[in-house]
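re: that chain from earlier
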Amino acid sequence: MKLYNTLTRRKEDFVPLEEGKVSMYVCGPTVYNYIHIGNARPMIVFDTVRRYLEYKGYDVNYVSNFTDVDDKIIKKSVEEGVSAEEISRRYIKECQKDMADMNVKPATTHPLATQEIGGMLDMIGTLIEKGYAYAAEDGTVYYRTRNFKGYGKLSGKNIDDLEAGHRDIQVSGDLKEDPLDFVLWKPKKEGEPYWESPWCEGRPGWHIECSVMAKKYLGNEIDIHAGGEDLIFPHHENEIAQSEAANGTQFAKYWMHNAFLNIDNKKMSKSLGNFFTVREIGEKYDLQVLRFFMLSAHYRSPLNFSADLMEAAKSGLDRIVTAAENLKRLSAHAADGAMTDAERELYTQSEQFVEKFEAAMDDDFNTADAVSAVFELVKFCNTNASAEHTKVYLDALSARLAQLCDVLGIITEKEEEVLDEEIEALIAERQAARKAKDFARADAIRDQLSGMGIILKDTREGVTWKRA
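^ sequence. v structure.
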């Protein structure tokens, strides 16, 4: 298996630090509002990476944080007249709902920044002791960027060409030893949440949070650190500087970054009016469609979001789900018994699509090509599955399709829907009308059901239905 390592700027063979195990840290969202579809891309991409690693037999310790103390959270709390904690708790819950609807598996651990302050104070203290950090007169603690010899190795930036990177944090540059130094701890402002520290009552800088949470839940050195490409500099660059200086070892062996998501070929922004939350998309589409759309391109390629592309994703997903439902329906009426020789030959032929799928995923998690392999399997199933085949053969094909889709986080088996009594009665009445050759009444009931959002399909095995 090969993956592209941002640190070395090339594809490398994946060899974990500990055989059979993978430690993986993915930067999570700042929880001050509903997550937007830009947030959704890394969630879906790296959930799929995790799923494939697990498919390959690895035990994955997957950590993804929630940043629950931040200027934006504080601003929102002031606007609403509630505590910052209330804001963050609310939107963590909403984020988890959206993640579940996108079929993103919960992380092994979802640490909260506010619950890891003790570890942050310890790491900052270590950095001061080692000469990598210093406290200014007002209690702000800065990291001495120039003291870390490897600074810029992830982003490829030359330290002499850089200006200090901050995340909407307004600080007085006069108190810094060097304009490049960045904040580890900063004094509280009136009305803000704060914690006691040896330097001042205050709160942590953004970058120190992830360094500490990765160390606590995964160790001093981890296999994979991932996030959006917008985090490469300064966030991930600063994480490396903090972690490697404090821990005395390489921080992450592999760095993975997904490319940006554009909206109708433009950068997503509120000012352009093309800013969409996952919740808003969920009002128009099943969020499985959004997930399928996100996997239609390689994660390192820019992805353009548009109504046409979402409709195409919906159609593609429907093809897969329909094929899965067809296999299930055929199986329900199929004969028992062992596979025939012809069926065994067909099932063996279907292995080629699994091989194509794995080859795509082994090549830097190329989900676009993996999806193509799934479509080939769907076509094969549609062509080589019928009412004449045995149940064991149909179930084997069904399991093979479901397994590959599960790696992609695509749900092929819909939960059984319960029709209310009125609809059940109408379907039964229509069947009776057909039996009595009262086709006018049968057609009228079909139209009535269609108006209620129920689509009927008559098959040799009986009538099936789905919601429009």
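The first strand starts at residue 2 and ends at 5.
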